[in-house]
Amino acid sequence: MKKKKRTVSYAKWGYIFILPFFITYFIFSLIPLADTVRYSFYEYYRSGIKEIGPNFVGMANYASLLKSDMLQYGANTLILWIIGFIPQIVIALVLACWFTDARLKIRGKQFFKVVIYLPNLIMASAFAMLFFALFSTSGPVNSILMSIGLIHTPIDFMGSVFGTRSLIGFMNFLMWFGNTTIMLIAAVNGISVEIFEACDLDGCNSIQRFLYITLPMIRPILAYTLITSIIGGLQMFDVPQILTNGQGNPDRSSMTLIMFLNNHLKSKNYGMAGALSVYLFIISAILCFIVYRMTNDSDPDGSKKAAKKAAREERRRRK
Q: Where is the ABC transmembrane type-1 domain (predicted)?
């Protein structure tokens, strides 16, 4: 009789090695997530030294939030995100195309990449404190503008809606455009050089090269950038919190959804905080799904559309 060969299965070791991650995720993410959803259906808050609840109230917390200023704070969050994201993606795309264009022969690319990425390493709190000092009424920016005669009285940047929102958007742009630029540079470098050479031989100019070659080829990375930016925008907290001292001034025009959530947590209103967290989760999921569907084409070469069109024509011909 032939002896059976002993086979060693290494598959189980993969599960053993990833087990710590799943245990950590279950304890620190999944259980708190389920607990947050559970709290959203309960009345649970503190009034003075007295603790109310938890009392089951069903969808009352969700209805109360819709009647509150949540929609206004959602609009604030959207406006602040747009102010920061649009310049970020435009500048990042321009820099990515510039640094990856072999025809330009730019020297010191690595140095410029490091300089571009450096603001991403600075803490948001440090950025907010720096801008608060720079743009205050007695700060260096007003002093310089007055000394060169452009203004006669200090500008209260943080006393106007436009000024405060612009500063927050500018800070978000500075902190994240470097990270976006590096990702887009990697995406453009992943495109075959032969495609660009064929494009040049066909006589395409720079705009056509960007619109018809670069942009479609880096669409997956653009989708990733947009989705992570939307999630980050909905979680915007530290910059407006520090710049406005948690008040969202002027007239709560810079109050974001996470700042609103933080106010509920500070007042120990866990039921409303849980309901607002669920709203944020649902909004994030919907927006990310829409972006994913818009930026990912399941039929990039149009073969499926052509096949469907041919089938329709064949049916019409038979009739």
A: 74-291
